[in-house]
Structures are given as C-alpha cells and as structure tokens.
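fwd from M.: "can u put these together and see what the complex looks like"

so here's what she sent:
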Amino acid sequence: MTALANEISHKTQIITEYLSSRGLEAASFDVNGLAKFPIPPQDQIPFRARLELASAAKELYDISVGPKQDLRDLAWDRHRLVHEGLTAKVEAMNGNLPIGVLNLRRLLRHAMTNRIFCEKTKNQVGHTRVSRLLLKDEPLRNWAGFVCNDMWLPIANTVEAMKQWPGSDEPTETGVNLAYKHNLPWFDFIHQDQTLANRYNQAMKAHGGTSGSSVEDVVNGYPWANLGEATVVDMGGNQGYISMTIAEAHPALNFIAQDQAGMRTPETIGTVPDHLANRVQLTTHGFFTPQREVADCYFFLRAILHGFSDKYCVKILQALVPALRKGSVVVVNDGALPELGTASYVEERAMRTLDLMMQVTVNAHEREADDWTDLFARADNRYHVERVWTPERSVMSFVEVVWTGED
Ligand SMILES: C[S@@+](CC[C@H](N)C(=O)[O-])C[C@H]1O[C@@H](n2cnc3c(N)ncnc32)[C@H](O)[C@@H]1O
C-alpha cells in the first residue's frame, strides 16, 4: 500500500507540475469544470503519468476495500447503469414524475455516489460535470444509452449463449440473439429499428473519442501523406466521420465511405459538410459482395474485422480480391490485444471489455499481432502483410497489407 501511495503521489506531482507550468486546470466534476485533462498524447510523460495514476489509484482503492467487498461491489455496482440511463429522462420530465418522488429521490441520491448530479443543499439537485455531459454531449449520452439500455440484456444472456452454442463463430448465436429472441446478425437487427441504429451510430462516434482509440490516433498513426493524391475506400465507414477527419488533415485524399444500405436511408444517412462534399462520398456496399471500387484505391477497414469471427473475415477479404491490382494496399486499424503485462490497467481493461463486447454482440474477438498474418494468409496467399504496428499509447493496431497478385 505504501508503494502504491508513493506512486500516486509521484504521478500526481508530475501531472500538477505540468498543468501549473502551463497555467492549465485539472479535470473536475464541478459543473463548469474540464471534462478531460488537457494533456495531449504527444506530451508523453504527463500523459502516461495520468494513466498510471488512474491504475495505481484504482489498485489502492481495491486493496483498501479488500477482496471480499471488492467482489461484492463488483456485482452490486451494476446499479450504476440504471441511473446513467435515467439522467436524460429526468431533464425531460419537467415536473411530471411517472416514477414517483420517492423513487426519483433514491435514484438521484444513488447517482450522486457516482458523481452524477449533486445536492449541495438538501433537496436542491444540481448538475455535476458528468450529468451535464450526459445532457449536452449527444454521442456520449447515446454511448451510455447503448451500453445501459441495449446491451444490458445481451450481456446477461452471453454465458447462456456460450453454453447453448459452444465455440460458435456464427453472428446469429449470441447473447443478443437470446436476449431479443431473433436469429438475425447484429447489424441486420439494428437496421430494423431506426432509434437503435441511430443510437449505435452516435455511440460509435463517442467510442472514437476514447483514449487509445481516438480519431486523432487514426490521423496521426498512419502515414497518410505518403499516399499522395489517392482515393481511400473506407469500408464500413459508418457516416464517414473517420474519412472526414482524415480528409480535413490531408487535402490530397478523397474518400468513399461505404456502409450497408440501412445506414444510407433518408432517416439514417449522415451529413458531409459542404467544404468536404466533393471529397467524401457516402455510398452503399456490403462486405460479402465482390468489391466494385478499383482504380487507385486504398482499402481501409477500421474497427471492422474485430466484428467478425475468422470464418467471416476470410469471406470479407476474399470478396475484396476482384478490386485488387498488383500493389494495391489494404490498411486495417483494429483492436490490439496487448501482450501480457505490456499495457496499463486502464488500457488493458478497455481492450478486454471490448473483446467481451465482440463476443456478446457478434461472436467475434479482438486479435493479437500474429493473428493478422494468419488471417490474411487463410483468405488468400497473395495478400502480403507488410507490417503490424501499434502506435504509442494507442489500443488499436495498424496492419498494412499489399496485394502481390497480378492484375
Ligand atoms: C464498428 S463500426 C465501425 C465504423 C467505423 N469504421 C469506425 O471506425 O468507427 C462497423 C461498421 O460496419 C458496418 N457494417 C457491418 N456489417 C456490414 C456489412 N456486411 N457490409 C458493410 N458494412 C457493414 C456497420 O454498419 C458499421 O458502420
């Protein structure tokens, strides 16, 4: 405990000295406080110190409550999920309380133990930075809604799905299928319901803002400038927000962000700002039909292959072959499971949770560096994996693959 306390003190000092030397504030739960620390990843020492501080503080907290209570809390604290979903609703209730005052009070007071709302004077509820974020930050609110509302039952059904379909690699044999009693793959399921599809889209946007898998990591982690004037096909590009961010930074690049037809209906399709309209197109293409874009294309798959078991990834990579010409490049940016003991607690936990979520929704999994070479070789031996690398501080790897087949 003393060693941890010393580490916490040391890391805190690194962070506070960094902030005060630049006249910056720390993040705070105060309603007007900063929602995140103003320490960019490029400032490696304080950036890492903050991750290490969070890991050490969590470990010290866990030790101080002890294993027995820690385990009890782990189950007990699922209550957190209830009120995170409630926050937005309270705002909309406008004095009309279908759940009754007593229930509202108990939910709010429990929420406050997680720093959602505060009560400085008895019965006077105010916002904290967290509750205000839930109100104002649309992607983040949808992220909370997606996890709490849509994922809650599937998570609870996942072990049952594992027992019912042992070792399955089918996207129709998951906790989602059991929870919602259907036999559709995940994306077909969400496209049936506009509200769910929109919530998922917004949630993906918020996921792109998390530490270690941010859109900045995509822009800075790959040498896009070396492509010169080129077109990048962003396969499964959702509403094009990754394409648009890279396009902003690299004016010589054009993007075709492909996605399923369900993402391109008048109700679901995203908006490309005017200044990018002639460089970023939102089009329709399914992974399992032969790819039709050829030309000088680079194919980019971000957060796609981790959503499919090996069996289906092989099919996706085979469907890409008709579009490939000698020297065509396929770039994958996807979760990187860290080697044992190489990541901080915060990063490791994020990746392990994502790995589980892949199981819950689609029976897929995150991959380690070696897995990529095996996967491309299984799809077609004319794929040559040039390199696999994980940018510093990122939890997502880049895999650069060159097509060696003839035209
Ligand atoms: C996890 S999201 C990743 C979105 C984006 N590439 C990113 O990095 O945030 C997966 C995307 O793949 C799309 N998708 C899923 N199945 C597909 C299919 N069979 N064909 C085309 N797109 C698909 C989904 O609609 C979704 O937008």
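replying to her w this: Residues 2-74 form one domain.
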